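Follow-up to my earlier ticket, as requested here are the two runs.
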Amino acid sequence: MLFSRKKLSSIKNESKRKEFPLFILAGSIAALTNVICRILLTIFLNFEISVFISYLIGMVTSFLLQRKYVFKSTKKSYKKSFAAFSLVNLFALVQVWIVSLLIKFWLVNFISSVPLVEFIAHCFGVGIPTFSSYFGHKYITFSEKSR
């Protein structure tokens, strides 16, 4: 055996320690994609629809990054992982959409610039599901156990 059990365990523990920071990094890239797409889409569509469509674009970006760089040990097929990923993200989408709209509604009373209000509201909305998404993807989407 090339590595002892202790060494393999150490490698696996190190990989687990890096998992959450990598999740945050990949999620941040996907969130940035989401926000930039929302800004561009708002030129053509209203805020509510732009939040929804940009979320879907960010979601696909996130899936590809999470699968390749964060949860590499999954044995699930892309089809099964994406189905589970979509289910977890459906819950997150509801969180993003509601938070974005509530913060926009609240901030309009304090800030007169609608684009600034929409930007702030959307950024908060995108950040809210970080922890629920991490645990959902860790234990449902990319779990090491086959279901």
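Run two:
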Amino acid sequence: MTSSQDTSSRGFASMDEDKQREIARKGGESVPDEKRSFSKDHELASEAGRKGGESVPDEKRSFSKDHELASEAGRKGGESVPDEKRSFSKDRELASEAGRKGGEASHK
């Protein structure tokens, strides 16, 4: 066995995805809002999301392969935000612009 195979049954990476998410969620919840850089800097969050998306090959992007999964995730995300914090519900032009940008990005 190689050294990478020796460690494949140990640690975070070897846990099932639900367990990994549970642990990651706890880490995120432990940081107060005022110390979360993405909550203070939406441009930084947007840039990080773009970079993360670009680093994944097309064939491994589950949302690009499964549009129903993408829709479901979007609905769940939207439901988790209180009405008063939903910028798209307050600003239709912003929503329209985001939709256009998303469509353009998916066709590059």
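The only thing I checked on run two: Helices lie at 3-6, 17-29, 37-40, 42-54, 62-65, 67-79, 87-90, 92-106. Let me know what else you need.
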